[in-house]
Amino acid sequence: MPSVGLARLLRDAGLPWDPRNGDHFHIPDRDFGEEVWMVSDMSIEPRRSVGQENELAFNGTVEWALDSIVKDEVVWVPTEGQLRELLGEHFIALLREDDGSYACVIRLRQESTTFTGATAAESYAEALLATLGEPR
User: Fold this and answer.
1) In 10 A of CB 77, how many CB atoms?
2) pLDDT for 55-109, tens place per residue?
3) Do residues 46 and 20 lie in contact, with contact meaning Cβ atoms separated by under 8 Å?
4) What residues contact 128, with CB distance under 8 A and at least 6 apart?
5) In what order do the strands lie in the sheet with 91-96?
6) Cα 7 to Cα 75: distance, rounded to the nearest angstrom
7) Burial of 114: CB neighbours in 10 Å, binned 0-12, 13-18, 19+
8) Which of 27, 55, 59, 129 has a CA that sits 20 to 30 A from residue 21's CA?
9) Type and span of the H or E element at 82
């Protein structure tokens, strides 16, 4: 997964998210540090509230003083596979560099462009950030 900071940049750039089982997210501004949580029907369930707003409901977790939180108050932290899927037709290749970093090659504005990161997920996220707002 990319860093929480990079996930925030993706959210702020307009990356849409419809919470699903297995998705990871971060709750900012609640003294959880960089903790990342996972949506699971067993404990954190995606649902629609009465006003039809997406929220995440915390079921049976006694350590929480939180019943639910509106989706827009959290930061989705996509997995490596989700990031690659979101790149769609922009994606060309993922390469492992000699120094151990990763390079994601995408087609952006009719040209091949490369984005590097310490992990494959970081390079995918950097590439996705560049594509947001681009026609698909």
Assistant:
1) 25
2) 777 766 544 556 677 888 899 999 999 999 999 999 999 999 999 999 999 999 9
3) yes
4) 10, 15, 83, 86, 87
5) 91-96, 102-108, 111-117
6) 7
7) middle
8) 129
9) helix 80-87
Q: What is the pLDDT of residues 6-46, one digit of tens each?
A: 999 999 999 999 999 899 999 998 777 788 988 876 667 77
State the residue for tokens 């790149």.
87
Partners of 46 in the β-ladder: 56
Position 18, amino acid: D
Tokens linked to 133 = 């707002």
Strands 36-38 vs 75-76: parallel, antiparallel or unpaired:
unpaired
> Of the candidates 122, 124, 129, which has an alpha carbon nearest to the alpha carbon of residue 14?
129
Q: Which long-range contacts (CB under 8 A, 24 or more apart) does 115-119 make?
A: 117/2, 119/2, 119/80
- The whole-angstrom separation of Cα 44 and Cα 82 is 19
State the residue for tokens 């649902």.
47
The shares of helix, strand and coil residues in the chain, as percent rounded to the nearest 5, are: 25, 30, 45
